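To illustrate the input format used throughout this study, we show a single complete record. The first block contains the structure-token representation of the backbone; no residue identities are included at this stage. The design step must infer an amino acid for every position from geometry alone.
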């Protein structure tokens, strides 16, 4: 790897860590502002759709699986039980699994002393491993964004819409970025 390639790789790794931190901050904001009555409310219809509690525990549990399969040398967060998990437990679990995912991303994409330790991304036991790269981060973010959308829609359908400032707040990347320790905002290496 040339010096320039290493620099780009390291910048990508540091940016990936910040991006995933901002991603988790969005989840934390949603749970913080969600009406407690919506947490275990049964979704409308006869379907076996997940409750909001089940969606957030699923997100955490999938992150834990990514760490267990991709970076087993890291401390794997314990699974959350969707039937008993409280919003407080979900927030703590998500914070822990986000921290482990950030470590995994730094090791995979550069930006830490253990750079290069993670060489393959394993999404699941049935899935073919991928070489590490930006696709890994995109997959992780897509999974989370999908479920955040479900939570926002389900809260609204259940009669507990999130405040407008929360919905627009999860799109304020400058504020999210700063809340995650990067005062320069997106695109600025700080």
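Output of the design step:
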């Amino acid at each position: 790897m040339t010096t320039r390639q290493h620099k780009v790789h390291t910048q990508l790794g540091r940016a990936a860590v910040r991006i995933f931190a901002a991603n988790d901050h969005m989840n934390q904001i949603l749970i913080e502002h969600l009406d407690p009555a919506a947490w275990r409310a049964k979704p409308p219809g006869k379907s076996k759709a997940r409750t909001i509690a089940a969606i957030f525990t699923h997100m955490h549990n999938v992150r834990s699986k990514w760490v267990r399969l991709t970076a087993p040398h890291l401390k794997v967060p314990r699974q959350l039980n969707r039937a008993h998990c409280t919003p407080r437990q979900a927030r703590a679990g998500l914070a822990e699994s986000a921290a482990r995912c950030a470590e995994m991303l730094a090791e995979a994409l550069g930006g830490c002393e253990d750079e290069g330790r993670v060489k393959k991304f394993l999404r699941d036991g049935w899935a073919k491993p991928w070489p590490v790269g930006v696709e890994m981060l995109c997959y992780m973010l897509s999974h989370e964004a999908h479920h955040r959308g479900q939570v926002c829609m389900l809260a609204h359908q259940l009669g507990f819409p999130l405040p407008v400032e929360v919905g627009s707040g999860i799109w304020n990347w400058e504020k999210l970025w700063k809340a995650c320790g990067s005062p320069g905002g997106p695109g600025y290496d700080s």
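Structural context for interpreting the output: The chain has six helices and two strands. Strands lie at 120-121, 130-131.
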